Amino acid sequence: MLSFPKTITTFRSQAPHPLRHPRYIPPVTAIQNNGGDRNDNNVSGGEDSGSSSPPTKSRITPPNTVEIRFKRGSRKRRKQEAESAAEKIKLKPAPKDWDSMTLTEKLVEVYVGEKGLLFWLNKFAYASIFIVIGGWIVFRFVGPAFNLYQLDTPPLSPTSMFK
Questions:
Q1: Exposure of 36 by Cβ count < 10 A (0-12 exposed, 13-18 middle, 19+ buried)?
Q2: Shortest CA distance to 71 belongs to which of 62, 81, 63?
Q3: Is the pTM of this model over 0.70?
Q4: Which domain covers residue 112, as residue numbers?
Q5: Among the listed residues 24, 29, 57, the one whose alpha carbon sits nearest the alpha carbon of residue 43
Q6: Are 34 and 58 in contact (CB under 8 A)?
């Protein structure tokens, strides 16, 4: 038969509730029996094994524990904290005065500046998408519904669109 020189005894650990997320989960520990009495099956010492001699206590060495920490908090908050830290690191240079700029710098600022021409063209293009879609809905559905005008042909059925 095989005999192992060292035995490992584990203790029952309370499992966390599946719906709760604890900040700290105590580590599961294992105690190693270093050559203690083989007949001592009762490590906790709760029951008597029936022998006339008292059970011998083996030396218990403190186990090496590993601490596990779980990250808590929302991703959004962590991202904001990272961005605020990045903003503290980056220092923006002070913008030049309009009077101290050269003609080329002024033209570039008017074209691509914070509120320059490209900024307003982009806003207009984005808004025009909604204006065109809204106008089409009014023309196609609202005008005929109020009998303001009639369309030349009735709407196509969905099956005829895919032929």
A1: middle
A2: 81
A3: no
A4: 98-163
A5: 57
A6: yes
